[in-house]
Design goal:
Helix 3 runs parallel beside helix 4 and helix 6 packs parallel to helix 7. The chain has seven helices and nine strands.
Length: 289
């Protein structure tokens, strides 16, 4: 009799199959956690809220390689995005934004792009006694910072000061922890800011560089974002870098560019597509006139 004609063995009992499935799920979960939390033994998880709170959730430290062999940033983030959503629901904060809890491709790509620009110009300055784009000594603002990867990257590259703005206090808690993990807490400060509110006059024309990732996906955000970009950044050379997925709401990005160039005394310097793993990100560079 041929082997393919032999009767199949009976399936294992249900309880064994369930146990095997649960074991595989546990193994996969552990692998994902270990992969996302490199350096976790050095920087153990800690609760954002007091452990006595029923709504507390744990954070983990993710090691982000910004530039191979040159720059790594440690980011404190929630262990589970679902836990953040559940917290907001429990607190009846239904208008809160839970999407800050993830490290998105736009922030990763923008961090890498700026770091490469900085390193390239540092090398050029060494060879030719002059440099172009450099972070050293600059004042930086990150608008809608989320976990603050871009701003903390620039702090590690030598920025004089970095201010992280976001409307969600929870993400700023994580950003403050990340600043400590990267030894830049003396450089980085955080501030709650809703870009729909009037700009603080004390911050007008106060920053050399403004960076932002994933801030143009909603139509109503275009005008206030352009307003803050033009008001916060110094005239005569202040720089703005915006990163966004190229296929998501391109009409918002076009409207933003038009508004900046025609109404905000700003010129478009470049528009470059960058790759992060399988994701493509568009990076805009603008300069105040």
């Amino acid at each position: 009799m041929c082997w393919w004609a032999l009767p199949l063995p009976p399936p294992p009992p249900l309880h064994r199959r369930d146990a095997a499935r649960k074991q595989k799920q546990t193994q996969r979960r552990q692998q994902r956690t270990e992969h996302a939390s490199i350096g976790r033994n050095k920087y153990p998880p800690r609760a954002v809220f007091p452990s006595s709170s029923s709504s507390s959730f744990q954070t983990v430290t993710e090691e982000v390689v910004v530039v191979d062999e040159k720059l790594t940033v440690h980011i404190c983030r929630p262990k589970s995005e679902d836990a953040v959503i559940e917290y907001y629901i429990e607190k009846k904060q239904l208008d809160a934004d839970p999407y800050w809890a993830a490290l998105w491709p736009s922030a990763r790509a923008l961090s890498a792009h700026l770091a490469h620009m900085h390193f390239d110009d540092e090398e050029e300055a060494t060879e030719h006694s002059h440099g172009g784009f450099s972070i050293r000594g600059k004042t930086v603002a990150e608008l809608g910072c989320g976990l603050g990867l871009v701003g903390i990257t620039l702090a590690k590259l030598g920025a004089k000061s970095v201010t992280l703005f976001d409307r969600e206090p929870l993400c700023l808690e994580c950003a403050n922890r990340s600043a400590e993990l990267n030894d830049v807490e003396s450089i980085v400060k955080t501030e709650v800011l809703d870009w729909n509110a009037p700009a603080d006059k004390n911050k007008l024309n106060n920053f050399d560089i403004l960076v932002a990732a994933d801030v143009l996906y909603e139509r109503h955000a275009v005008e206030p974002v352009s307003e803050f970009c033009s008001n916060f950044v110094k005239a005569n050379g202040g720089q703005v870098f915006i990163a966004d997925p190229p296929l998501r709401a391109p009409q918002n990005r076009e409207r933003f560019k038009k508004m900046m160039v025609e109404e905000k005394q700003t010129k478009l310097v470049s528009e470059k597509r960058k790759k992060h793993l399988l994701d493509e990100v568009l990076v805009l560079e603008l300069m105040r006139l």
